């Protein structure tokens, strides 16, 4: 159940009650593709850096170790020793990214494993069964993510197929949630709005999705090649047609600035690999903008990554030391940088929630963006 606590313009402060606890929104989900955050970050680390939701990937876990293996191990929560909410994405985006290896048909998608080349078929029912085996808190409907450069005719047909697939996802999830051997019988289902950068297709699709009484609604197929301005425009046009009394999830987005703009346009949930990926390469987020620890000027820098930051890296280590670890290719360097970046994102979300609670999000957003621009 989603509870809308406060609104400032279109920005929403809410909470989603799930079988694995309450999610305070807006929230950033920390991406652990294969049931782990890249950079040697453990589940107990996530607890220490304010993580509310961990996100894992259906396709990757289906390929390795296999969703049946995870089911036998008691589900994803038990498998990775994490008792808070987990969202699993449906595998649809991997189908998009594996374009050279796939064939899309009405029944689903035939494609090759990126690991061993074996043939895999995934359709709505298969995606739901895999996610049910994983026993995540929130499952995403199986969809096609058309390219932002795709022709209108293709996008229209693709969106219509995604709607038909969603109906099949919902029917299969209802069946699975009543099955005797299902681990999480209260698994939630989020549908995904598609339509590339055609606002009229997006709006029409949002209207159809809104009538389907889902647990939440995602906006997919953005941050895949279109400009930031196009993305913000699509959000402005589309989000008002999604139910305000349900969570809205902007998939795969993004930078701190993208998140602030998304919140302003009514988005509750975000996820992105940026903080962990950038961290592994020594690119760190601070309230004064991004820094690159590989720069020589940090060699003798005794300061933490950011003064006043409460993350495990900043509480103890200097920029100079972490730079040395990165240069020496010591795993600890990557780990500390990833922890800092995720802590920065999670703390920013906390600040956003506080600002919305106090009714001064607009002022907070302006100050945050000005600070990071320096």
TrEMBL record:
It comes from Kineothrix alysoides. Residues 252-258 are annotated as: RNA binding. Homodimer. Within each dimer, one monomer is responsible for RNA recognition and catalysis, while the other monomer binds to the replacement base PreQ1. InterPro entries: ArchSynthase1/Queuine_TRR, TGT, TGT-like_sf, tRNA_ribo_trans-like. Belongs to the queuine tRNA-ribosyltransferase family. Residues 10-371 form the tRNA-guanine(15) transglycosylase-like domain. Catalyzes the base-exchange of a guanine (G) residue with the queuine precursor 7-aminomethyl-7-deazaguanine (PreQ1) at position 34 (anticodon wobble position) in tRNAs with GU(N) anticodons (tRNA-Asp, -Asn, -His and -Tyr). Catalysis occurs through a double-displacement mechanism. The nucleophile active site attacks the C1' of nucleotide 34 to detach the guanine base from the RNA, forming a covalent enzyme-RNA intermediate. The proton acceptor active site deprotonates the incoming PreQ1, allowing a nucleophilic attack on the C1' of the ribose to form the product. It catalyses: 7-aminomethyl-7-carbaguanine + guanosine(34) in tRNA = 7-aminomethyl-7-carbaguanosine(34) in tRNA + guanine. One of its GO terms (biological process) is tRNA queuosine(34) biosynthetic process. Pathway: tRNA modification; tRNA-queuosine biosynthesis. Substrate binds at residues 89-93, 143, 194, 221. The keyword Cell inner membrane does not apply. PANTHER family: QUEUINE TRNA-RIBOSYLTRANSFERASE. Its cofactor is Zn(2+). Its EC number is 2.4.2.29. Keywords: Glycosyltransferase, Metal-binding, Queuosine biosynthesis, Transferase, tRNA processing, Zinc. The gene is tgt. Zn(2+) binds at residues 309, 311, 314, 340. One of its GO terms (molecular function) is metal ion binding. GO terms for cellular component: cytosol. The active site is at residues 89, 271. Pfam families: TGT. This is Queuine tRNA-ribosyltransferase. Binds 1 zinc ion per subunit.
């Amino acid at each position: 159940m989603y509870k809308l606590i406060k609104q400032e313009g279109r920005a929403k402060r809410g909470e989603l009650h799930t079988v694995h606890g309450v999610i305070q929104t807006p929230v950033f989900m920390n991406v652990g593709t294969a049931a782990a955050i890249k950079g040697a970050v453990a589940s107990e680390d996530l607890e220490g850096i304010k993580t509310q939701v961990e996100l894992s990937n259906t396709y990757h876990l289906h390929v390795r170790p296999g969703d049946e293996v995870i089911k036998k191990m008691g589900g994803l929560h038990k498998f990775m020793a994490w008792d808070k909410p987990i969202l699993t994405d449906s595998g649809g985006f991997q189908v998009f990214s594996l374009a050279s290896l796939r064939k899309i048909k009405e029944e689903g998608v035939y494609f090759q494993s990126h690991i061993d080349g074996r043939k895999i078929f995934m359709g709505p029912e298969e995606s739901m069964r895999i996610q049910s085996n994983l026993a995540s808190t929130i499952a995403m409907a199986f969809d096609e993510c058309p390219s932002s450069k795709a022709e209108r005719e293709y996008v229209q047909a693709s969106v219509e197929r995604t709607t038909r697939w969603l109906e099949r996802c919902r029917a299969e999830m209802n069946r699975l949630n009543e099955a005797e051997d299902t681990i999480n019988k209260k698994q939630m289902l989020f549908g995904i709005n598609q339509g590339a950068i055609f606002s009229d297709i997006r709006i029409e699709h949002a209207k159809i999705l809104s009538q389907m009484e889902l647990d939440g609604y995602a906006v997919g197929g953005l941050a895949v090649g279109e400009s930031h301005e196009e993305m913000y425009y699509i959000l402005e046009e589309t989000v008002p047609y999604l139910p305000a009394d349900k969570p809205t999830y902007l998939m795969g987005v993004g930078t701190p600035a993208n998140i602030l703009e998304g919140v302003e346009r009514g988005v509750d949930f975000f996820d992105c690999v940026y903080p962990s990926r950038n961290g592994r390469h020594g690119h760190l987020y601070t309230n004064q903008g991004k820094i690159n620890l590989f720069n020589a000027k940090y060699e003798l820098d005794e300061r933490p990554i950011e003064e006043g930051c409460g993350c495990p890296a900043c509480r103890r280590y200097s920029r100079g030391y972490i730079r040395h670890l990165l240069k020496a290719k010591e795993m600890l360097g990557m780990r500390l940088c990833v922890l800092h970046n995720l802590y920065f994102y999670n703390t920013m979300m906390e600040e956003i929630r506080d600002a919305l609670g106090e009714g001064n999000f607009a002022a907070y957003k302006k100050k945050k963006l000005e600070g990071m621009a320096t």
